[in-house]
Amino acid sequence: xxxxxxxxxxxxxxxxxxxxxxxxxxxxxxxxxxxxALLGTAAxxxxxxxxxxxxxxxxxxxxxxxxxxxxxxxxTGRHTGAVAEIDRAGSLRxxxxxxxxxxxxxxxxxxxxxxxPPPPPPPTTAELARSLLDEYLLPFEVTSLLLLAAVIxxxxxxxxxxxxxxxxxxxxxxxxSSEGSLR
Amino acid sequence: MMLRELLLLAALLxxxxxxxxxxxxxxxxxxxxxxxxxxxxxxxxxxxATLRGGPGEVLVLFSLAITVxxxxxxxxxxxxxxxxxxxxxxxxxxxxxx
Lengths: 183, 98
What we know:
heterodimer; A: mainly alpha; Four Helix Bundle (Hemerythrin (Met), subunit A); B: mainly alpha; Helix Hairpins
């Protein structure tokens, strides 16, 4: 019974935080609400007998992604709360599309027979690691290649000399010398 | 039963992400909404893995790695946008239209 209560609590936190992520006008606050939504998701994982995933979620998402996002907001926005406008007509259209998608998928979930055999016990962290380096070795290596490519691509993109910006000083740190970033 | 509620929660989170992607005009805000959508997919993976078995937990690990690399490239694009136009509203970047 207390497990059901925990699920309901975590789900409520995640949903409210997610709504605040898309509605908040202050971008820094939106990022922090995202952190709360991801933390609630980590709690859901822990309740679902996946403690390793909960830990990874906190480390990579909240430790890595949210920090990166805050960094992105700080570097590109005005420092005192970058404002993100939401126009009313676009909001109505978005509500319509999102509601339509929810109705479609929700209807499919409700009309599907989800009963099945009782699940096997969830994998321990050791079993997870073994299957990652044994059965899923090729995807694992491909993922490492993807991460390498993404990091190199990000560095190349962020350092690129933009021909649209005339007279940019040839500094070793273009991001520090370009206009606007020190504003 | 638990699985149905968790799948509905994932669908709801994904819809909130769709709403954010469609209504936000700031590039970082759009990235945040995409994160919400990826997170919703992960919730569905873990729910199936725990309540029905299957390799869902390993898939979530791969999904996390892919999301992280997407954020890295996405933020690099945001910085490029900012350096080129002095702002990060996506409406500015219309040159790539065919």
